[in-house]
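FW: tagging you since you asked about this chain on Friday. Here's the raw sequence from the shared folder, copied in full. Didn't touch anything.
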Amino acid sequence: MSAQTVMMVVAMAATSLVGSVSYPANTLVMGLGKYRFADYSKLAIPPTWAVF
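HL: got it, structure written out here
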């Protein structure tokens, strides 16, 4: 496996942690703060596209 492939996998995994179901704390904040899944997607999509 090339170094570039490994770096892309790590970068994609890092940006997926922004989602609401990545950590239990995110799920708790989602309920208490009345956030929607779309609110987390707004934060997750730009870093994901920046990787490409």
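FW: The mean pLDDT is 78.
HL: agreed, and The chain is about 70% helix and 0% strand.
FW: great, closing this out.
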